[in-house]
Amino acid sequence: MPRMRPGRVRTKHDNGRPPLLLSTLKPQNISLRDGETRTIVCPDCETWRRLMGETQLKIRQHCAKDCTGCTSKVAADRKVHTTCPGTDQPVTLDISVEVWGERMLAADSTATGRRSARQHYKPLAQLPTAVHRLGDRGPQGTPALPRLLPLLERARHAVDQHRVVCSVCRTGGRCETGRALEVRSAETQASCTIAREQQHRQERQQGGRSAALTRRSQWAAVLPAVRDADTRRTSVPVPPGRAEAPANAGTANVPTEPENLEAHDRRQAELGRQYAQRKGSVALSA
């Protein structure tokens, strides 16, 4: 287990400089957390060093940042060490550890707020052009297929001429020259096949674009008629011969009583008797 108690000061002397005040130090350059060894960044060598003592704090004795005794590979030079001027530098806690902790939290929150929460991704590297597509178009912008067809015919003719002259290839064997000519002819044939497929694909794409342009022009031609039909559809015409009610017509002419009161009473009485008979029959059956 590491020793958590503060180290004991071995000397009463210091480096003769005024003490460093805790209130003037940056919170991130000193550590005074509970349960951790007290450390501080030495103002001279700018490295983390231990603070010794309980009430009178001093920076522990240490070598300089570029001490030859620590960095030299020669055994004789490693015995000589250069002491850092920040050794035995007194440190005064003019503020409480709680105040220092509040400043530390404020510094952490400020640093966190400065960091952007958005992640910026590097753009993906663009894939290089495939080898078989490097010669799709020539320097004058001509397609690849018309340029490759004469090359293919020339390569086949070279193979046929070599087979006529060479005795090894004529009997069914393969010499080095014949094999090189056949490989070149096969590569040219493959390039022609790829160029032909690319040309067909481009023709299909151009055909789709032309079809889309045709449909767009057709819609543009009928668009005025469609707008006129929509405008006429919104207005509802009045059918001929239909008598419209006058605008000032009220409810004065609406009848509220039957025309024949006697017939109406007889009808109501008949409905009452039928209802009574139906209700009595339902009660007897229950």
Any overview of this molecule?
The chain has 286 residues and is α+β, with helices and mostly antiparallel strands. Among the domains are: 90 residues, no CATH class; 75 residues. The protein is built from 7 helices and 6 strands; from the N terminus they run βββββααβααααα. It has a 6-stranded mixed sheet, with no helix packed on it. It is flat.
Q: Strand tally, please? A: 6
Q: What characteristic shape results from the CA principal axes?
A: flat
Taken in chain order, the helices and strands follow as EEEEEHHEHHHHH
Rg estimate, integer Å: 52 Å
Q: Sheet with the most strands?
A: 6 strands, mixed
Distance between the termini: 98 Å
Quick check: average pLDDT? 77
Helix content: 40-55%
Strand order of the largest sheet: 1-6-5-4-3-2
Measured by DSSP, the beta-strand proportion falls in 5-15%
Low-pLDDT sequence parts: none
Class from secondary-structure proportions: alpha+beta
How many helices in DSSP terms? 7
Summarize this structure as a short list of keywords or feature phrases.
alpha+beta; single chain; 6 strands; 286 residues; 7 helices; 6-stranded mixed β-sheet; 6% strand; flat
Briefly say what this structure is.
This protein has helices at residues 68-71, 75-78, 97-114, 144-165, 167-170, 176-234, 261-285, and strands at 20-21, 30-31, 39-41, 48-52, 57-59, 90-92. The protein is α+β, with helices and mostly antiparallel strands. The protein has a 6-stranded mixed sheet, with no helix packed on it.
